[in-house]
Amino acid sequence: MNAPSPELLEKLAQLLGPKGYTADRDAIAPWLTDWRGRFHGESVALLSPANVDEVAAVMRLAGEYGAPLVPQGGNSSMVGGATPPADGSALILSLRRMNRVRSISPADGVVVAEAGVILANLHDAVAEQGMRFPLTLGGKGSATVGGLVSTNAGGTQVLRFGTMRALTLGVEAILPDGARFDGLNPLKKDNRGYDIRHLLVGAEGTLGVITAASLRLVPAILDRAVGWIGVDGPHQALKLLRLIEGRAGDAIEGFEIVPADSLALVLRHIPGTRAPLGGDHPWHVLVELDRSDPAAQAPAAQLEGLLAAALNEGLCRDATIATSEAQAEAFWKLRDSISEAERAQGPALQHDISVPVAAMPDFMLSAAETIRSAYPGVSVSAYGHLGDGNVHFHVRAPENPPADWQKTAGAAISPHVHDLVVAAGGSISAEHGIGQMKLAENARLADPARLMALGAIKAALDPKHLLNPGKLVPLATDRTAP
To answer: Tens-digit pLDDT profile for the chain (482 aa)?
Structure first.
């Protein structure tokens, strides 16, 4: 496609003013590359509307002139989902200036936040009202509400509260023709046909631009207990999870499994970290129990009893419970820093996949051995959210790899991993989305009916293929794409 016309750029500059429009190369440069540094794009302008009316006006102008738009929040996509095309044909539509928390209702358990609100700031805002938004992830200091909704983000609390789809009660969005979809009212019953909200959640900005969302809140945590446990392997960890679920019920908020090599990378590369347990353990589990009701059993006492039972039943090798909030945060930092530590270690191929929970232990072990055997010299780590089947399956490069190892090795290794996932009845994208990184693999492996539906919906709502082109929907299925 052609670059945006000078006439369009002039109209956008007049519409948005100097705070909302820039063509300065230095200002645009940080937003042209994805978080992992794998995808690089070009754009002649960065558009930063201040309100929903400006977003609608931008969308109408873009449609009139046939200019593609790439919606962007914190630019923390793990699959290149917010990176513009390399040909410079698209404009970046940043929602970061739309960063107001419009309302908080503890009585209703609802917060209305604009798309540019950073997750950590949302946490702070609702905490002042004695509430919390029960989704967190390692990138909470940069990830924005719009991006979280658009990618149906997961994180470490899905076990109890579900993904963003479950937490998003309503959305406000601008559709490709500039029409405003006002669906912020958090109705429990609304039986008027297709659920536009759920269509936009997880659409990766290909069907509309999220400008605000109504999100579910829950009472603030009164206290919590965070434990670090050494186990023999994933099968033992799953039995431990079932024990805790059976006896703790909704009190269990997080259950993460980490192999010894991933922990070792964190200890090597992340300053201020230390191993919670003495001795060597092949696998580790991080578990958190919470309570909001003072009448409920104290989490520390509950977790202590559960771990004693686990030790008696041979479900763990050793365990410790954090004795302070600082120590609890230190335990979570070990889990949240794995990606950062791997990036410091060297090139790696990261696969965010899911399999049925019961199949996860076998998959983590057998798939890792299959890949190690097929590609000598690589190291494989599988870690993640055991309770919801989400495996982060990472293949790290051999020593002294060539500069293009990710590209050349990935051409064989990633499809191999994805074939193993499909054979296990899983999904090649658990919580990061498809973006552009998994576009071809999604087209290769997805059910034809799914691809047909994706293409038909995209063609109906965005017939000119102007919203986030080259992401999620394979062009082959978009019958009206230019």
So the answer is: 688 999 999 999 999 999 999 999 999 999 999 987 889 999 999 999 999 999 999 999 999 999 999 999 999 888 899 999 999 999 999 999 999 999 999 999 999 999 999 999 999 999 999 999 999 987 899 999 999 999 999 888 888 899 999 999 999 999 999 999 999 999 888 898 999 999 999 999 999 999 999 999 999 999 999 999 999 999 999 999 999 999 998 899 999 999 999 999 999 999 999 999 999 999 999 999 999 999 999 999 999 999 999 999 999 999 999 999 999 999 999 999 998 899 899 999 999 999 999 999 999 999 999 999 999 999 999 999 988 889 899 999 999 999 999 889 989 999 999 999 999 999 999 988 999 999 999 999 999 999 999 999 999 999 999 999 999 987 644 433 33
Give the angle subtended at the CA of 391 by the CAs of 240 and 469, to the nearest 5°: 150
Q: Give the H/E segment covering residue 309.
A: helix 299-312
What number does CATH give the domain 6-94?
Answer: 3.30.43.10
**Segments of 109-222 assigned E as strands:** 110-114, 131-132, 168-174, 180-183, 209-216, 218-219
* Closest among 425, 265, 296, 274 to 355, alpha carbons compared: 425
CATH architecture for segment(s) 223-338: 2-Layer Sandwich (3.30)
Domain 346-423 of CATH type 3.30.70.2740: yes
